[in-house]
Amino acid sequence: MVKRKNDIEDLISHILTFGVIFSIIFLSIGVIIYLIQTKEIILEENWTLKGENLFIVLINIFNKIFQNNLSYTFMAIGILLLMLTQYIRVIVSVAYFSIIKDWKYVVITLIVFIILTLSIIGYF
Amino acid sequence: MIDIFLIIILSFITGLLGALTGLGGASIMVPLLTLLGVPIKYAIAAGMVTVIATSSGSAASYVERKLTNVKAAMYLEIYTVIGAILGAIITSFISSKLLYFFFASFLITSFIGLKGHLSKELPIVNKQDKISKLLNLEGSYFDEALGKEVNYKLTNAIQGGLGMFIAGLAAGMLGIGAGAFKVSVHELILKMPSKVSSTTSNFIIGMTALAGSTIYLKMGLIHVNLVAPMAIGTTIGAILGARILNKFRNVTIRYLFLAIVLYLIIQMLYKGMIAPW
Fold it and tell me: Which has the closest alpha carbon to A76: A115, A37, A31?
């Protein structure tokens, strides 16, 4: 397969578009369910994302899916989708530059990937 | 108690105005939230996550139109990501009182920036520095106004990187995109053409915001019921704003925005003064 110069642009554009659309759908469903219960925003701890890092938060959401308010589950997934979209964007970039053997940019995207991964797993 | 509809409407308006004026929605929304009674650290955390949504939403179309310099963005992200992580850690630990003053200072620089204009001419780089050359920091795009393909080269890679570190630090600390600052670094230091600089900055903002958000997530500062209405309102506002941007060059909007920023500067200074240490 012949690679076009701008493949990376198209790929990233699609990732971002799908990520945002799915995220906004989840957030909107969450807000609609929330509105059925109340229209006031109460800033209490049970409405925060809970966990030492992004992956633990994700596991907690699914483990407590029946205990948590349904609107919480939808809104929390929507937010994590937003964050994961950008993370996937970096992973795809590393893979892309590896495929086209642009080693300088493999290194650059890997540095970004490593720093972000450390931050996502709660190292900092 | 804050009404969820109020947040959606305010976010929509700030997202729209943010896209029209180039100052992101979050830099207006975060101080507005504090005026509604939201503790500033919660407002900053919510702003940071919202910025990911607006950046991803608008970046998608710009990247596809090849206006974004993806390679330069990835190089500069190294610096902004480190800056944002550090900034978010600082915010998690320092007194809220200081944050009000930092926000006021940021708004003052934006106020001055909004009044002035950056050069619209195409920069010409005759000699690239070694690192810019090594990293192939160059590109081309089709300029509709000029009706031709424009080739450009970037320079001052290290200085530009350090500028982006500071932009990332400000973004992480205040829960904003710091887009105007990033654009200045791109144009003044890296010598990027202005059409490329704004879209590249917007692209980088998403990654910077993710880095900052991971810290706020760990600190338990992200409230889903605040972020959700904000992200929905701001993203829809920003996408609509970007669409009508070209048809809508109104000086009145600029003045309106300046007035809002001025009002927020005064409010942030006042809140800073009355806040306990």
Answer: A31
Chosen for mutation from A8, A13, A109, A114 (greatest number of chain B CBs closer than 10 Å) is A13
Q: What burial class does residue B188 get, using C-beta atoms within 10 Å of its C-beta: 0-12 exposed, 13-18 middle, 19+ buried?
A: middle
Q: What is the pTM for the complete model shown?
A: 0.94
What are the φ/ψ torsions at residue A49 (nearest 5 degrees)?
-75, 125
Strand runs labelled E in B106-250: 138-143, 148-153
What is the average per-residue pLDDT within B106-117? 77
Tokens matching residue A82: 């937003």
CB nearest to B225's CB, from A16, A47, A90:
A47
B residues 21..80 contacting A (CB < 8 A): 38-39, 42, 49, 52-53, 56-57, 59-61, 63-64, 66, 68, 70-71, 74-75, 77-78
Question: B235 Cβ partners below 8 Å, 6+ apart?
Answer: A20, A24, B15, B50, B53, B54, B57
For B171-195, what is each residue's pLDDT tens digit?
Answer: 999 999 998 889 889 988 999 988 8
